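Quick start: what a row looks like.
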Amino acid sequence: MASKNILVIYYSRSGNTRKVAEEIAQSLHCDIEEIRSRVSYPQNFWGYQRALLHASFKKKPEIQMVQSLLEDYDLVIVGSPVWGGALSAPIRSFFDRNKDELRNVVFFLTQGGEFGRKKVFTQMKELCLKTPLTTFAVTERDVRSGKFKKQVAEFIASLNLERSETATEVPRSIEL
């Protein structure tokens, strides 16, 4: 699979998911796009509370249209923060709008701790209607310390992108 046919798409409230998405896109030399919500989730107490409520009640806020033609990509790597043990609302909206245009997917998460990643990966799979080729999760602590860069390198290596497009081997799931 040529890296020009890969898109990293993500939503980030705090900037952690953005850092991981940018590292993945830079490592793969591929396209990247940020999902923007029309609902504000500011970096304050009330923004955090709104994010938790929207995630808990499975809200689907209006998001700006994705600029990329998703069907043009062989692989779309979708990144989201974990909000209170649930999928972020903007990514829920993204899947609701775009699930039919995605061919192959990989999911990654950023989270404050260890709680919720399996549940959120399951939510992503159910909303996307596709089984991801692999998954990857990184903690906020690892993003702040810079440790995530090594974890991203290991994640990229696990994708086996140099293999032939006819190979059917599926990469293993990585949860660091």
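That is the whole record. The radius of gyration is 15 Å. DSSP finds six helices and six strands in the chain.
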